[in-house]
Amino acid sequence: MYDVLAEVVRNGFAESVHYGSVAGLAPDGTLAYARGDVRGTVLPRSTTKPFQALACLAAGAPLAGERLAIAAGSHTGEDFHVAAVEAILAAAGLDAGALRCPPSWPEDEPSKAALIRAGKGETREHMNCSGKHAAMLAACAANGWPPETYLDPGHPVQQGVRAALADGSGETPAPVAVDGCGAPLFGLTLVGLARAVRSLALAAGGPSRAVADAMRTHPEYVGGTGHANTELMRALPGSVVKGGAEGVLVAATAAGHAVAVKVIDGSPRATTAIALRALAALGADTTAAAKLGAVPVLGGGRPVGEIRIIEGK
Fold it and tell me: How far apart are CA 278 and CA 152, in angstroms?
């Protein structure tokens, strides 16, 4: 059902392996790379954030530039991220008290340390999903929809998300689960997920193009300082990249190569390298991102091995 996608090698000894599946689409949209079960349903987690942003924008939320990028991102809680989230809420006449994502520390360690030094604790706006939650509230404000229930799967904003995913993937998203941030989560196959991210990367106009361009122009709002998603989009101009929890990642090039990865043990440590190998197998030039495909294994603070990507048979 799953393939061995990567192995963790320490001092020449393979101590761990990552199993999973990868779907890769050629620029013409055909399935040209398949590892493991690419037609089984996965929970795509935060790889769906660009489509949540798309649904909010299509519903009339006044999102552009950095604010649209953070709506499509999983930010690391740096000060500029929090400022963007607060700006989205303020434009909707709301504040952080309206957010329904759980309070969290920033994922960015210096930002977390600064909060602790200031005697502050976890906040909702520092949670990595607060950008999309703020965007959903902005969509509510633009349409007069009830903000208190914006996380209900039957709410208009969530029905818009489901429709955006269906349009991009060519599938009926199911099942419906609850993501870590409390938002509805719609299942897709890896083929459908690759098809969806490809549709964003190739969009010629409209809200889809706006979301893709915001992510490309402001990748630091999609991830954060040093974040793999941010660095990969910088290395491959025109690409759209988004990772998610539990070992899921999608990436598409400006030419239309697209991959969707699921590592079944849930670890993200090899997903970027796996995606890069799949993109290269599809014919994409990933040379500029070579450093992201090399994942060292450390011993005593120095490299003593690597995570090796296993080629398909």
Answer: 36
For residue 278 the two structure tokens come to: 């799949």
Q: Which residues of 242-268 are buried (b: 16+ CB within 10 A; e: fewer)?
A: bbbbbbbbbbbbbbbbbbbbbbbeeeb
Q: Which two tokens stand for residue 18?
A: 């990552």
Those residues whose C-beta lies under 8 Å from the C-beta of residue 12, and which sit 6 or more positions away, are 305
51: Cβ contacts below 8 Å, ≥ 6 apart: 161, 164, 165, 168, 196, 200
Tokens 């929809």 correspond to what residue?
145
Q: Which of 194, 126, 150 is nearest to 61 (CA)?
A: 150
Q: Please give the average per-residue pLDDT across 231-253, as a whole number.
A: 98
- Is the pTM value of this prediction over 0.90? yes
pLDDT tens-place string over residues 22-31: 999 999 999 9
Specify the amino acid at residue 179: D
User: How far is residue 136's CA from residue 67's CA, in Å, rounded to a whole number?
Assistant: 12
Place of tokens 């969290």: 104
Residue 30 burial (CB count, 10 A): 8
Which of these, 250, 196, 194, 262, lies nearest to 222 by C-alpha position?
A: 250
The pLDDT of 4-18, averaged and rounded, is 97
